[in-house]
């Protein structure tokens, strides 16, 4: 029999080929710790205090893009969901649905990326699952990661704490991830300068916790639907609104030029390594200074303020006018994460 | 606009339609507790002691079958993985990948089933994710559940504790789930008497913990690869083997007749509501009596014993001979869970 270099249905069947795939590709990378004996579930040490639990499935198309692939996206996405919920991510699960015929060399690339980014984020892959479906029953590979974190004491997060005058801060350029995916998908040549922002925001959250926990009111990573969707969700069912200042919103030159060319509003485009923060205005410039000295926050800006206009997100335009920032009904960019 | 009765790409896009789907279908069923405010991650109360963490993606085809659908399968599968790891399941995540065009009425059926079975298993759905992919990029619906459980004190589980003379017990008929899926897929008419065994084994585990924790050495639910795969995994890299007694192994009449017709070995076929147990022989008949008085264990049998033949799983045939119980290399029944 010649060497098998693509995924076969039998790799997911529970027999010898499944076993070989798990041992060669999973245990070789993640086999230290609870995964070692391949139990049905990982036994984890006691966590003192509340837990944070989050899940996301990743179906990004294409599965490789400038700045990474579905692997680091799947680590960062769940790490960030836990982080902005006020937790320190500790453990991840890794469940893959792979299409028959997927090259094993590509699977290795993805798993290497997962290993590297999990190490960087200081989270452990402790349990997993691999399913294989026939050709045409998924598109290359889909990955689910779920994560358990340890809730940080001291944060008191929630829409109810937000009040007019609070500052809205974003940690860096908006929309680079979504635009990088679009560029990869459509084969748009941008001299490779547009890189997905996929990254962990954990250190940004940690820095807030150490210095400004009491003044932080809301954190969220603006993924699907972008900054516009998150801000509209925040103001819904409240007595306040948010006004952005268009000249303050950070965009990369590369994302802007593609967005302009295609008529896309970057406020609706996903980031995968940025966070939105609403905090008491008295500490806003201190937080900005703190973040600007960290690699993950060097592009941070105060992009707007909470006002008294109920449930309304607006933006001051360059010419001094104002317009509403709405959430699109339809689908702008499917499968960006 | 006419009423939307199938899943659209925009249901996964992060905009208004996504929001409506989550509110109408998810929050209406699971909105009590941590999911209520739709945070990125659920904050959960402190768990005293070790945690058990498990994940599985479900890609069963067809997604409906006699005895349930992908919904209760996804609850039971993860509940069982936590249970046989010696944990009490507490919290589940629910991540769905849905194909564009999937009927919303079918989604409701699945979510109702998830709600019912989660309630029955006393686990809470606390966090989730919904992705939509275009037609032909998945097959109807795939579901991932990950779960957190509370490790029971008192169990000491592991292959290293198994020794010759120990009993091997199964909690009920083998292979009903896999055969029910096959029947549904191939349109085999079996008068609807063959029902998937999908169910929780949590109460079986709990009963062992209360009475026999010290004597329990290994627990596993025989899903993909069936009983044969689990037993071969147990004996691998050990100095012992297992001999089964073919007349003791419980099969349903319906599964047997389909298996015979198609030439399938039921020892290789998945269950989704059974457990395999290896325990000290001194308590084997007591456990059998205990289980036989529980609805989930009424079909339980002692199907074999651990012996001194290293890494070998064998079976005593009806005629008194012996043969090897091997694990198939290839894929018998793709997408049975």
Mind explaining what this structure looks like?
2 copies of one chain form a homodimer. The first copy, chain A, has 337 residues and is α+β, with helices and mostly antiparallel strands. Chain A has 2 domains: 9-151, 60s Ribosomal Protein L30, Chain: A, CATH 3.30.1330; 159-324, Alpha-Beta Complex (Phosphoribosyl-aminoimidazole Synthetase, Chain A, domain 2), CATH 3.90.650.10. The first copy, chain A, has helices at 16-30, 70-84, 104-121, 176-186, 202-212, 226-235, 253-262, 284-292, and strands at 42-44, 51-58, 64-65, 68-69, 87-99, 124-133, 141-151, 167-170, 216-220, 241-245, 276-279, 301-307, 313-316, 322-324. A 7-stranded mixed beta sheet of chain A has the order 9-11-8-12-10-13-14, sandwiched between helices. Chain A has a 4-stranded mixed beta sheet with strand order 2-7-5-6. In chain A, α1 runs parallel beside α3 (104-121) and α4 crosses α7 (253-262). Chain A is globular, with a radius of gyration of 21 Å. β2 of chain A pairs antiparallel with β1 of chain B, so a sheet runs across the interface.
Quick summary of this structure?
The first copy, chain A, has 337 residues and is an alpha+beta fold.
């Amino acid at each position: 029999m010649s060497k098998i270099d693509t995924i076969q249905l039998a790799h997911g069947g529970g027999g010898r080929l499944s076993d070989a795939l798990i041992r060669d590709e999973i245990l070789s990378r993640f086999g230290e710790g609870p995964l070692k004996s391949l139990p049905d579930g990982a036994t984890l040490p006691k966590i003192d205090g509340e837990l944070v639990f989050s899940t996301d499935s990743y179906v990004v198309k294409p599965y490789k893009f400038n700045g990474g692939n579905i692997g680091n996206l799947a680590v960062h996405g769940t790490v960030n969901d836990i982080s902005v919920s006020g937790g320190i991510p500790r453990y991840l699960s890794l469940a893959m649905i792979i299409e028959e015929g997927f090259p094993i060399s590509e699977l290795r690339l993805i798993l290497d990326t997962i290993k590297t980014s999990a190490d960087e984020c200081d989270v452990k892959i402790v349990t997993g699952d691999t399913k294989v479906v026939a050709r045409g029953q998924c598109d290359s590979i889909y990955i689910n990661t779920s994560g358990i974190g340890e809730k940080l004491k001291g944060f008191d997060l929630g829409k109810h704490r937000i009040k007019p005058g609070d500052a809205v801060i974003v940690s860096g350029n908006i929309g680079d991830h979504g635009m990088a995916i679009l560029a990869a998908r459509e084969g748009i040549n941008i001299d490779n300068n547009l890189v997905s922002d996929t990254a962990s925001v954990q250190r940004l959250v940690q820095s807030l916790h150490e210095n400004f926990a009491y003044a932080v009111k809301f954190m969220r990573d603006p993924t699907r639907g972008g900054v516009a969707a998150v801000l509209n969700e925040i103001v819904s069912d409240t007595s306040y609104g948010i006004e952005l200042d268009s000249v303050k919103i950070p965009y990369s030159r590369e994302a802007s030029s593609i967005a302009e060319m295609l008529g896309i509003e970057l406020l609706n485009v996903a980031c995968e390594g940025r966070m939105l923060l609403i905090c008491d205005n008295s500490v806003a410039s201190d937080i900005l200074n703190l973040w600007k000295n960290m690699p993950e926050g060097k592009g941070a800006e105060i992009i707007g303020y909470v006002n008294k206009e109920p449930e309304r997100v607006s933006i001051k335009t360059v010419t001094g006018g104002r317009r509403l920032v709405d959430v699109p009904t339809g689908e702008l960019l499917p499968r960006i994460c």
